[in-house]
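chain below, 326 aa
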Amino acid sequence: MRASSIFSTRQAARRALGLTAVLALVATLGLSACGDDDDDGDAGTPGGGDKGKIVVGAANFAESTLLAQMFAQVLEKAGYDAEVKQLTTREVYEPALEKGSDIQAFAEYAATLTTFLNAKDNGANAKSPASTDIDETVDALQPLADKHDLAIGEPSEATDQNSFAVKEDFATENNLTSLEDLADFQGELVLGGPSECPKRDYCQKGLESKYGIEFTGFKAYDTGGPLTKQALKSNKIQIGLVFSSDPAIAQLGFKVLTDPKNLQASDNIIPVMNKQAAKPDALEALNSVCAALTQDDLVRLNKAVQVDHEDAETVAKEYLQSKNLI
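prediction:
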């Protein structure tokens, strides 16, 4: 179409204006065509950040920061301007995610988020629909997420269950292998964990109601982080909330007590986005991380950040490159 139009214009120009006018016309058309080609070439360049900004939130513990870095980097690869924003507890970041102005994406834990949203809608004493089966948990989470303007992705096989650990020598002295064994324990038993632990079904509240454990006190530290582990190591507490994916558990001489009554449900890592930001390619980028991440990967990456003190952004980048995700 463009070729025939140019030909006709040239013929008319020869008749009316002569050779000089023809050359001027051709030059003008050539410049216009070059301008069009440049514009087409710039549009939609992968990794250019031209699709808009997405801020990935991170909670106040190392694994959350590591996962947030992975999410941000695959979003950058997908063409978004992505960055990580450090926040604190779920009570802070979940409402921010719903609102969508400060953060738009988060690496969440399926069962815990399900329990949190259900309590938000139905009261703190409402029975959680989360299950030890991840498919059932995701089925329960979907309508809750919809109600709160959240979009959820595909869960990873990698999980980070809340667990409760004691020192090996304390376990040996008191014949402790299970949380059930603490029901008959007589003596000082101070629990350490995040500040919200006493009110959470999966933490102190659940340990007391489901296992009949009587604590002599509670001390607020971080969420499965170095403060809790240091307090346990130095005997400031006798039992602490840790994460099942924490590589420091064995290194520090801790013993995780088994959970035969399934206090902890299926906390597989799952992408969550504010619905307005959840474009299909953005959610798919986050899904690609969860599809690649195994439990062994998670423990190894956590070791690099938490034990070896490597930079979380660098660890995330090297892992994603090894999986051809960036």
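Strands lie at 53-58, 81-86, 105-109, 150-152, 162-167, 190-193, 217-220, 239-243, 254-257, 269-274. The two ends are 40 Å apart (CA to CA).
thats it, cya
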